[in-house]
Amino acid sequence: MADLIIELGCEELPAGSVMPMAQHLGSALFALLKQSELCDSAPEIFATPRRIAARFANVGDRQADTQVERRGPAKAAAFKEGQPTKALEGFMRSAGVSLDALSTIDTPKGEWMVVRQTQPGKALEDVLADALPTIIKNMPMPRRMRWGATTDEFLRPVVWLMAVHGTTTLPLSVLGLQAGNRSWGHRFHAPEALTIDQPASYEALLESAYVMADPAERRARVVELVQREAVTLGGTPVMDDELVDEVTQLVEWPVALAGKFDEEFLEIPKEALIQTMQENQRYFALLDSQGALMPSFVTVANVESKNPATVIDGNERVIRPRFADTMFFWNQDKQDTLASHQPQLSRLLFQEKLGSVADKVERMGAVGQWLSTELHTDNDAVQLAVSLCKCDLNTEIVKELAKMQGICGRYYALRDGHSAEVAEAMEQHYYPKQAGGALPQGTVSQIVALADKTDTLVGIFGLGMKPTGAKDPFALRRASLGIVRIIVEHRLNLSLDALLDASLASYGSRLSDPDKGDMLAYIVERMRGYLVDKGYTPDAIDAVLAKQSNKPLDIVQRLAAMQQFRDTDAAVSLSAASKRMSNILKKVTDSLPATVNSSLLKEPAEAALFKQVADVTPTIEAALSPIGDKAPDYVQVMQTTATLSGAVDAFFDNVMVMDEDTALRENRLALLAQVNDLCCSTAELGLLKPADTLMAEHGSGQGSA
For the chain, first and last CA: distance in Å? Predict the structure, then answer.
């Protein structure tokens, strides 16, 4: 057993491909080695722009020998007049054995000829040689290229292959390269070959040659260096995770350098400057203690220059014309109000069959009016926000920097003298922008966001363009989850069904045959995942959705009550009883009496249950139907329901429900139906799955049905 390392060296890879390719190499090799019983420890992954590598600990040099049993013809067909038949002779030739090596086994179909042989295990190099070309061929890469006169294809030209097991170089070959025990250092600082005597010395040798091969260590180094430079300038860097990841995969030896730009550019919205620095130059912007943008940046180079001032000057000169362009667009946009862009919205296509952005805004206004009424909000502010929220799509800055949509709208709305809540809605109606992202805060922003997301969902679903697989060009998953989060986390008492109706009405006859049920089911499915992430168990979610699948806030309130209830002994008893009651009632084909006849309650247990039901019903009904705007008190409902547990158990232990007397049977079934309705007023308790230990303590609720 010894360590194994395999490294593929190439010309500089695109930053976004480095880690996916390295992780594929590691996971595919690990699956191969584990299946071959040569290694059972996960690999260490190394990745830089010029190399991807995986190192494994304690890898065997050969598979263990295995005993195999090969079955030949049936004994009856193997011999004729005491001599081997052609079938048996062919089997012996294929197995490479003589007659004396054969034996027989008994099977249900008689005796069969078999040979038992030792199959030698494959050497490590043979296992790798067979699989490595396919592993590399299947690497995830956006495109492939050829180089030289070969027909080999890879994302970038491959320069070297290293494969070392212990102190042995494995004789592997791939992409026209023969594996060796050499790697290469930094392209500029240490371009000489490095001999890797053993895998354990890999990263130390590379670091001595100005290469930090461990991506996690290199990422931490990038963050440390950027923050150190920022502190010297008295600022805090904008450490966007995607930018840090990208910069990490652009360099092998990170060196942070600080630069400056002209203060006049600070007139531009800081988000535009930050986006330009991040996306165009991979610079880290700096903020002062008040959160304002500083006229400085930090860049990460891949070389320790002897003249860093020259490198800094080059970076400063590169950013200046980009900011100048943005300044030009900003000054152009200042000449017009946000509202002046409204007529151009009719020229922007939302979706071919759903019309222009202007059409979308008109529909959003209708939904916004309905939401304003439901949420008791100033509709004038909502309508103004809706009418302006897409106008910045026609501004010069947004045409140049698409991610500034909404953000520019906020700046321009404030510049035009609109209220803070209207300006806020310009940006925040796009929220949340990603899973777990910030939600719109003000009520106006929330209404515009709901109207926008619902319009997109209804329109695209109405055309039959439901997302399939990973394809979701209109981001309907994010829109659906955003609708749920806004309603739940801002405690909005809204019905999904009514919200969809309002949006469908705004479309008029543009949608020929929309399936509202399909839309609702899609949102509910996203809500189910959201609730699981919040810590609710799938069975509790199913139990609540069986009673209420239309109001997200009400669903969460029911689940919160269920969370407390299911930890009690009564939950085990009542969930089992509810399941039993439901099963009994499902078999009843005749209509049951609307009320229970107390004179027919012959058994003490059924009379006691009837009395307790009568006692708790007013409390449960009052909790479910509070006066005014108060929400139903589902905790009170479940606590009160729990008091029925003992009486329900006694009923099943002592009462024969399916009595031969028709009147008694129907009266008891009516009582069960009443009890089950009470027990399931918050959720279908029969769908709960209590812990096995609680079920064992409770038993199965003995009694006669």
Answer: 66
